[in-house]
TrEMBL record:
Species the sequence originates in: Drechslerella dactyloides (Nematode-trapping fungus)
All residue ranges annotated as the SET domain in the record: 48-220
Domain of life: Eukaryota
Protein name: SET domain-containing protein
Signal peptide residues on this chain, from the entry's feature table: none
InterPro entries, alphabetized: SET_dom, SET_dom_sf, SET_domain_protein
Length: 370
């Protein structure tokens, strides 16, 4: 009988069970697998800038131990495990069990507060494998428990690495052991994003952070009013006590709701423009540019000008204004400069977002007359 080390000790991992698990899809994300290693850089967590500490209500958190200037990259981390959203508990367990010892211990040490999934069909599949292998009921129960714990840790700590872009594509999620200690706020002071070019999760300071402040990221899209944010955060099993949630102000909620709507309208119009194959006229451009303007003003009013959302809208606005030309040319340059500055701060110069913004900025520069 083969044994595989997991957090509870040694556990039987029989012939059928192993075969059942190897039949499943590969667990490591493959999209970036063939990128050259040279572009990936190193992994680090700036322990010289922060420390992990127990909090009163939110488990372990990360706290600044030095002044952290806005834009500082605090984490640049490889994932321990990366799975597509359709992966089963068994597949996840297999991925964790196959980690080298240090990484496996790091995984099992993470918080587990997410509730078990509703779909329990994987338990039947596991039972059949265990029965075929002649495993005892105790072994089977321990294995179910291990799979459930692996799942809860994953659901508690995963960050989105590749968002689904269509109904047929799947979201990829990863667990990053140091960044996993970041607690949530709907008024965050750091920003996280997976960078596929370097295959790392990066976390940047959104503003200057003073020593003693907790580093807080947002697990969700914050362009939602308080009740909607609360509902999204139920997944992590806590009620957010950040400034935006404890004093929900009607005007702020209305602004965040409006921001969500405007964002959707702009992105839908952009999709339409992409399908129009150059058939857009000046009025279409003007309507989209005005939507971008309204969104940017609202972001500033809501105190969200520090977030990456501003960079996204400014980039769209800059592209539209540049294409519209004429009276919009100056605006195109201004928005492109803002997008470059926001992306440098939030995701860094090695990110796709920054490179795209820099390209748009270059295109908006006035051409010398011949
Ligand atoms: C990614 S982990 C963050 C690190 C975690 N606190 C730990 O001890 O390892 C997510 C979990 O932390 C807790 N958490 C995060 N943000 C919180 C907050 N604002 N208030 C209360 N609990 C929070 C919740 O239990 C959540 O499921």
């Amino acid at each position: 009988m083969k044994y595989c080390y997991i957090y509870t000790g040694y556990m039987p991992l029989g012939r059928h069970y192993r075969r059942a698990m190897t039949r499943t899809q590969p667990v490591q994300a493959t999209a970036e697998a063939d990128r050259p290693a040279a572009s990936m850089g190193t992994s680090y967590a700036r322990r010289d800038l922060y420390e992990e500490r127990q909090t009163v209500e939110a488990g372990v958190g990360a706290f600044a131990t030095a002044a952290i200037p806005s834009g500082t990259r605090i984490f640049c981390e490889e994932s321990l495990v990366m799975m597509t959203e359709d992966a089963t508990q068994i597949e996840l367990y297999r991925a964790v069990a196959s980690l080298e010892e240090g990484s496996r211990a790091a995984y099992w040490s993470l918080a587990a507060s997410a509730k078990p999934g509703k779909d329990v069909s994987w338990i039947d599949a596991l039972r059949q494998c265990c029965e075929r292998d002649g495993e005892s009921a105790d072994s089977f129960n321990a294995l179910v428990e291990a799979c459930e714990r692996a799942w809860s840790i994953f659901e508690t700590n995963r960050f989105t690495c590749k968002a689904s872009t269509s109904p047929t594509s799947l979201t990829t999620l990863g667990v990053f052991p140091a960044a996993a200690r970041l607690n949530h706020s709907c008024a965050p002071n750091v920003f996280h994003r997976y960078n596929p070019l370097i295959q790392r999760l990066t976390v940047h300071a959104l503003r200057d952070i003073a020593p003693g402040e907790e580093l807080l990221t947002s697990y969700i899209d914050i362009c939602h009013p308080t009740p909607a944010r609360r509902s999204l955060l139920r997944h992590w099993g806590f009620k957010c006590n950040c400034t935006a949630c404890t004093n929900p102000d009607v005007e702020s909620d209305a602004r965040r709701k409006k921001l969500g709507e405007l964002f959707l309208r702009i992105t839908n119009r952009e999709r339409k423009r992409a399908r129009s194959a150059g058939g857009w006229g000046p009025k279409d451009y003007e309507a989209s540019i005005k939507l971008a303007m309204r969104t940017i003003r609202l972001l500033q009013k809501e105190g969200m000008a520090e977030t990456d959302t501003l960079g996204v809208i400014c980039l769209i606005g800059a592209q539209l204004a540049s294409l519209a030309g004429g009276k919009w040319e100056e605006q195109a340059g201004e928005w492109a400069r803002t997008a470059v500055a926001v992306d440098r701060k939030c995701v860094g110069e090695d990110s796709m977002e920054y490179l795209r913004a820099a390209e748009v900025l270059e295109a908006t520069r006035p051409r010398p007359r011949l």
